Every structure is written in C-alpha cells, then in structure tokens.
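Example record used in the benchmark description.
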Amino acid sequence: MAEALTLPVVPPLSRKDFVSDQEVRWCPGCGDYSILAQTQKVMPDFGFPKENIVFISGIGCSGRLPYYMNTYGFHSIHGRAPTLATGLKAARPDLMVWVITGDGDALSIGGNHVLHSMRRNVDIKLIMFNNRIYGLTKGQASPTSEMGKRTKSSPAGTIDQPVMPLSIALAAEATFVARSVDTHTEHLQATFESAGRHHGSAFVEVLQNCNIFNDGAWRAFTEREVRDDRMLFLAHGEPMIFGKDRDKGIRLRGLHPEVVTIGEDGVTVDDLLVHDEHAEDPYLAFMLSRLSYPEFPVPVGVFRSVDHPTHDKLMQAQIDEARAKSGEGDLEALLNDGETWVAS
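Model output (structure tokens):
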C-alpha cells in the first residue's frame, strides 16, 4: 500500500475559508457553479492549510475556477495545466495539487499532457468538465461531441468519432478514475473527496451542462425522473444493480456485458457482476467506461482506485540513490566539466 499523505495540523476550516473575493462569472444556469460549490465544500475535509493547496487550470470556462478558490493557483495556457502540475509536484511534493480542465482543453491540444501525467502517476487530482462542446469559444464541436452533432464548426454534423475520456485515462494507467454529474451534488462531493484522498494520478470526469451552447447534453439519463433506470451507481464490493425497482442488473456473457432482469429466466443477484474498484488490472473498469445510454445504463462513481508508487516518490528515490553513490555534487564543477570553451 502507498504511504498515506502526512497532513499538517491546522485549525478547522469551513467552506467560507475557500471562497475567494472574486465575483463568480459564468453564464446563469451553468453547471460550473455546482462543481465550484462542491469543490469548496469538500476542501476542509482534507485538513490541508489553504497555503498548501494549488488549483491549476487551462483555457476554457473551467479555467476560471482557480480565481474563485481562496488558495494558490495558476490560470495556465491551453492544455498545459497537467505539465505545470507535474513540475510543481516534482518541486513541492508536499502540496495538494488540483488540475481543472474541460473536454476541449484536456482532450484536444492537452491530450498528450493528460496522457503522460496519468501514466507517470503524478500525484494530482484532475477534474475534467465535460459538456461535449467548446463553450468559451462559442459552440464548436469538441473531442467528446457525439457523431453527427451539428455545431458552428460542424454545420452538417461532425464526422469525428468522440473520445471516451475514462477509457483514455484507464489506458494511460491512471490509478484513480471516476465519473459524476454536476447536478448530483452529494455524489459529486463524495467523488471529489475520494479523489482528494487518493495518492497518485486521479482523473474525474464530471458530466456538466452548458445551457447556452449545448443545453441538455446529458439530460436523457441524468434527470431525477429517469436516472434510476438509466444510470448505474457503482459501489465497491456490490453487485451492479440499477432500476427504480432495483430489479435490473449487469451480467457478463463471455466477454460482453448484458442487461438482465432479476427474477426472469432464472437470473439472480448472484449472476450479476460485482464491482471491484481495487482490481489491479483495468479490464472491468475499461469495460464499464464503454457502457453508454441507451443500450446500457451510464455508470458513475469510482471505476478504479489502486495504489502504485507516485512520480515524485520514484524521482526522489533516484536522487537519493545518486547522492548516496556520488555525494551532493557541485553545480559549478558540473558546468565546467568536460568540453567547455570561452567566447571572445
């Protein structure tokens, strides 16, 4: 098991302590308000002083969030927030670092940066707002826009296969992968708390609504009236049951999942898949990341949570080994060693 985070002793904090003096400026009704609120609510639970917490964002509507957190933060350039976060964790592993990004920022120009921060198991918590659209630049198709989506940049319908963010994170060996919904506030807060307590690369996709350019992107399965029948709430060690009457489930037939009804054709709860978020191999989690409505209920919750050595710990081990072998070293001597010359 990875060692637990050592938390400094600080006076109890509340949500108000994490609210900055900046006016929150998103479009009225934007799902970002809920994400911000749940982030502020959960921060006191970690016991970190505000001065040891950093929020780093890229470009897009989500990029505003660091301004609204009364912590340190960076509003960085397009797609590069994970890169800044990697450098910061390398230099200051004692900090709690959150990366705030959107589906466009993270998965287009920032795709390679997200990928490598996950595979390196950098100890960051990456929250990706997914509204299936470019909101700040006024409604172009994003990497997660569904096939055939008509937007300002795809008036005849997009012909690009959409990216599945959780599948990407799992393929990159992220050690914590989860999904929640902006309007499911209690679930969202619990998901953020689980991500915050994880030691390693955490990737959380938040299904978020842009009511200006892509209103109702997820409404077909996230609305209160239908979500019980159209969503699968994952719980570690529990069978995959869903439905308003708790009579539906997910069973594996060969290599393929299927929806079954408990009590029909001899199906019992014992026939259903049991969720194991701590499974070392990502096969089950990857399968779940591919389930989509209307063929399947949409899974939310923690897909994977495993302990691996983090990037900063591995790097420090190499530094310690080099010092033990060769001493502290001398930077000036290093710069003047080997082939040097004087410019005249």
